[in-house]
Amino acid sequence: MLRRHRLGYWLCCISLAMLLPVVVVGKEVVRAVFMEDFPPLSFTDRQKANGMLVEQVEYLVEQSLGMQLEVKTYPWKRAQRLVEAGEADIFYTVETEARRQYAWFVKRPMYRIQLALLASAHNKRLDEIEQIRHLQDLEGFSITSYRGDGWSAQNLQQFPLLWMNGAQDALRAVDRGLADICIGNIPTLTAQLRTYGGRDRFVMVPLPDLTPTRPEFRIGVSQRALGASQLLEDLNRALEKAEVQQKLREIEERWHEK
């Protein structure tokens, strides 16, 4: 009888342990996911996550909060699904209405996007494209983007969009005349062009006034993550510190100088 009680006790302990957050040396593990091909912000380098956003989150979670961090990169649409399902705890992206359905976002933005468009230098309507300044100016042009691009899905929904599997595929669509333009972040577009090659075949037009406010990146916490409310509170508290903001700016400046 005593043996049965002991067995029941240990089974109960094991069941409870399975319900608790993952812990390493007394620290909860925060699972972060990033886009795998979004340089210089996030990308896979020698099977390891790298990039400005990755480094900022590593500093914020590991050094400022003192928590263990697990970082992985995926195709962006899959990464977002992991956050939605609670299989990942945080991501770092533009806050959109769709993403607010499954994630809570920190109050302070950590990075502001510099919008620009890319067009083929051989596009017959290049003179018109170079005059684009605001959203309404996009009327009549075909636009492409990559699957999972929440900003485009929310802000360009009134225009026909050609969705491609990845950012490189979107560049290829513009290069081959399948779409007139793609819109993105200047540092990211520059890095994508470096990877794609043929920089002289494209024209980049900065769009500082495309939308009333510049898109902002924030950390989003999965509403299904264990301890989500506490993690969000901890992140918000850390981001209010002047030394944390200074370090995040230093990381951003260093990556932009590369």
TrEMBL record:
<feature type="domain" description="Solute-binding protein family 3/N-terminal">
    <location>
        <begin position="29"/>
        <end position="258"/>
    </location>
</feature>
<feature type="coiled-coil region">
    <location>
        <begin position="225"/>
        <end position="252"/>
    </location>
</feature>
<keyword id="KW-0732">Signal</keyword>
<dbReference type="InterPro" id="IPR001638">
    <property type="entry name" value="Solute-binding_3/MltF_N"/>
</dbReference>
<keyword id="KW-0175">Coiled coil</keyword>
<dbReference type="Pfam" id="PF00497">
    <property type="entry name" value="SBP_bac_3"/>
</dbReference>
<protein>
    <submittedName>
        <fullName>Polar amino acid transport system substrate-binding protein</fullName>
    </submittedName>
</protein>
